[in-house]
Amino acid sequence: MKLLCNYKSSSENNYTPALDVKEKPLLKLFENSEIRKTPMKFSHLPEREVVKHFTKLSEMNYHVDKGMYPLGSCTMKYNPKVAEDIANLNNLLNLHPETPESEIQSALKIMFCLGESLKEISGMDAITLQPLAGSHGELTGLLITRAYFHSKKENRNTVLIPDTAHGTNPASSSRAGFKIKEIKSNKNGILDPKDLEKSMNEDVAALMITNPNTLGVFESNIKELSRILHKNGALLYMDGANLNALMGISRPGDIGVDIIHFNLHKTFATPHGGGGPGSGPVAVKNHLSKFLPVPTIEFDGKKYKFNWRGKNSIGKVSTFYGAFSVIIKAYVYIKLLGAEGLRLTSEQAIINSNYLLSNLEDKYDIPYKKNCMHEFVLSASKFKKNGVRALDIAKTLLDMGYHAPTVYFPLIVAEAMMIEPTETESKESLDGFIKAMRQVAKQAEENPNLLKNSPSTTPVGRLDEVKANRELNVRW
Ligand SMILES: *Cc1c(COP(=O)(O)O)cnc(C)c1O
């Protein structure tokens, strides 16, 4: 609690970088005449017209239920509808968060059991379900790290982060008050223990590593990395957003991880994208459990209850207990698949990804290692001589009926295209994507100008994304 209260707000701290675009007051973006003064009248429209309107809008969008969405790092897989149905049951949906404990035993049981399952899957000892996103889980984990060293009266102020890291890792570290030091990956795309050893000193609080990392490569030195950190009194934080590759195969807690966050909205059945609710539970080893946010949920053999005690706790990190609907869906998903099913899920995700890679490696450059986990990174650099960039390939794929892969990430790969098919794509759909990717590569060689006009079949054509970011205009 203490730490959060001492926490300086963003306006007065130095953690956030200075604004590098022209500042505009939000309200000035709208003209007065554009702000609605009276409620919108819908009632004069017949239901048929309303349904037509919204159906048309929904068709303008691309989504997971419509087709393949190989957006690397995001695990855009199909989510079973039964999880939605159960989360929408009236007695769960309309549960008031202030209902007395004795009347919400089933809800507490769902939260408790999800926590136990995630602990089992990850090999960790204690958990909070409160954080509302992966990045929020990172912040929570780093505040726990800070509280841990505070309690030991150690003044460690640095977090080490590999050059393959997701952008949220340095952002969360900085937000939690740490300095960041980057470590370079080796030629195989993983961290070398020798490089970690060189970066170690008494200022280092933790190494924050994603595993498998954003190149889709398993950090096979992780046990040795953990040994070096622990020998020097530091912690190993694992970004668990890529857990879709590990379930039932490798448990982070067994390979030296002290803190991990999960992305329930990636791995465990909540549709992801569009800014909907997410959930980023954080699990820790015993030595960190007393710093977890309150309340934690306990079971005394008869009753489930909230435990609000915790004088070392970092305090609450969200209103009430987290994103309950996402928690329900994750629990349904885990119960539905069981231990066997979860392992098969990860195996299939890895097989699908390797199948794509082996059918594309003759057409694109593969900067790191030929074997991948659940995703991989290609480079479109070889087409640059024809004036074709990764962005042109991504835009052309839209015209072919696919969502584009993640492009220009991770930053250490030039013209990067990061592809994650997930386990829910059939062989036919993978073959379709391979065909499209090969066709685009051929066009990039033979008729590069064609790629410059894409997309031409989508509701809007090619946007100036830099301008859209820098000169936000919400009028249309
Ligand atoms: C998605 C992702 C995150 C951030 O998760 P959010 O829920 O979007 O905040 C962090 N790290 C990795 C590796 C990710 O893929």
Could you tell me which ligands this complex binds, including any ions or cofactors? pyridoxal-5'-phosphate
Q: Approximately how much helix is present in the residues?
A: 25-40%
> How many extended strands?
12
Mean pLDDT reading: 92
Radius of gyration computed on alpha carbons: 24 Å
Q: Return the CATH class of the largest domain.
A: Alpha Beta
Classified in CATH, the superfamily of the largest domain is Type I PLP-dependent aspartate aminotransferase-like (Major domain)
Write the CATH fold name of the largest domain: Aspartate Aminotransferase, domain 2
Provide a count of the helices.
15
**CATH architecture name of the largest domain:** 3-Layer(aba) Sandwich
What is the molecular shape? globular
Q: Would you summarize the structure shown here?
A:
This protein is an alpha/beta fold and 476 residues long. It contains 15 helices and twelve strands.
Break the fold down into its secondary structure elements and pairings.
Blueprint: H1 2-6, H2 47-60, H3 81-87, H4 90-93, H5 105-122, E1 126-128, H6 134-151, E2 158-162, H7 168-175, E3 179-183, H8 193-199, E4 204-210, H9 222-231, E5 235-240, E6 259-262, H10 264-267, E7 282-284, E8 296-299, E9 304-307, H11 324-360, E10 376-379, H12 390-399, E11 406-407, E12 416-419, H13 427-446, H14 449-452, H15 465-470
Parallel strand pairs: 2-3, 2-4, 4-5, 5-6
Antiparallel strand pairs: 1-7, 6-7, 8-9, 10-12, 11-12
Helix pairs in contact: 3-11, 5-11, 6-7, 11-13
Word description of this protein:
The protein has 476 residues and is an alpha/beta fold. It has two domains: 254 residues, Aspartate Aminotransferase, domain 2, CATH 3.40.640.10; 132 residues, Aspartate Aminotransferase, domain 1 (Alpha-Beta Complex). It has 15 helices and twelve strands. The strands form three sheets. The chain has a seven-stranded mixed beta sheet, with helices on both faces. A hairpin with a 4-residue loop joins strand 8 and strand 9. Helix 11 crosses helix 13. The longest helix has 37 residues. It is globular and about 65 Å long. The site of pyridoxal-5'-phosphate has 14 residues, from helix 6.
